[in-house]
Amino acid sequence: MTEIASAGSAAARHEQTIAALKSGVDVIYQAVLVGVPWHGYADFLRRAEKPSALGPFSYEVLDTKLARTASPKHVVQLGVYCELLGRLQDCVPDEMHLVLGDDS
Fold this sequence. Notes:
Elements: E1 2-3, H1 10-23, E2 27-35, E3 38-48, E4 58-64, H2 72-89, E5 96-99
Parallel strand pairs: 1-2, 4-5
Antiparallel strand pairs: 2-3, 3-4
């Protein structure tokens, strides 16, 4: 697992995220995704065995919430993260994952 530093500019942390994506690590924690007009901080990016511009693998978004039920804003947030990630790996993730406060 690679953890993106919590200190530093969003641009620097975004560059760290890109380097982690290219490395092919299994999990990236606190990824910074940037793309006009959006930006976001994904809790986790999980490696998937689907080819992309990164190589024979790509990543999917996994985000966590304390809430015990999903809300529309959670789904929209995940969708934005998937769009931004798709731009980096030249393919949109097949799945996105939301882990709620009750572990569902």
